[in-house]
Amino acid sequence: MKKMLLLVTMLGLAAGLSAKAAEAKENWETVCAKCHGAEGKGDTKMGAKLGVKDFTDAKVQGDIKDEDAVKAIKDGVKDADGKTKMKAFVTGADTPLTDAEVKALVTYVRGLKK
């Protein structure tokens, strides 16, 4: 009986993680891909204009801390002149993301590394 309960719990956790991953992918496609590209390479017209980073590059991934990625998503990104390069994507923005969705999105971005 304990093994059955453990198995059911594990399957429930796996389903929950899978749902979060699917939601993060959907958020990526809706909010991020127009600049960062479907695969995270930054190979879009807007990505080239803004000089976005290639998230599939291991070095780029290594240079970004999770807390910095969360901050960029929540607060947006400005250039040296204070001009907005990326708007904030948090509750209250045009495309609101919750704290949990932001964390899941950072995890998704980590998975883009080749």
Outline: globular
Total helical elements: 5
Major beta-sheet overview: 2 strands, antiparallel
Helix coverage percent of residues? 55-70%
Order the strands across the largest sheet as they lie in space.
1-2
By CATH, the architecture is named: Orthogonal Bundle
Tell me the distance between the termini.
42 Å
CATH class: Mainly Alpha
- Rg on CA atoms, Å: 17 Å
Share of residues in strands: under 5%
Number of domains: 1
The count of DSSP E runs of length 2 or more, i.e. the number of strands, is 2
- Which topology does CATH recognise? Cytochrome Bc1 Complex, Chain D, domain 2
Poorly predicted runs: 11-19
**Helix-strand pattern:** HHHHEEH
The SS-based structural class is: mainly alpha
Rounded mean pLDDT score: 84
